[in-house]
Design brief:
mainly alpha; 3 helices
């Protein structure tokens, strides 16, 4: 292997490593991920709000049920 081939492989490996590290940094950037999740939820709700409303009703019913159970159970 010639010196120029080695340098080309090193440069390619560095570029690949840089891409991988950028992807890892992107995944671990919590504020950025929360922003993406928020935009996804907003777009999903705008497109079809029914599942979101059903989910909210189920969560509210569960919370009310758990509070009632905690208040009125004899355990």
């Amino acid at each position: 292997m010639s010196d120029s081939e080695i340098q080309a492989r090193v440069a390619a490996t560095r570029a690949e490593l840089e891409t991988t590290l950028d992807a890892i940094e992107d995944k671990l950037n919590v504020p950025k991920q929360l922003g993406r999740a928020g935009r996804f939820a907003e777009e999903s709700f705008d497109e079809n709000p029914v599942p979101w409303i059903v989910g909210a009703v189920i969560v509210a019913g569960t919370v009310v049920g758990l509070v009632a159970w905690a208040l009125f159970s004899k355990d």
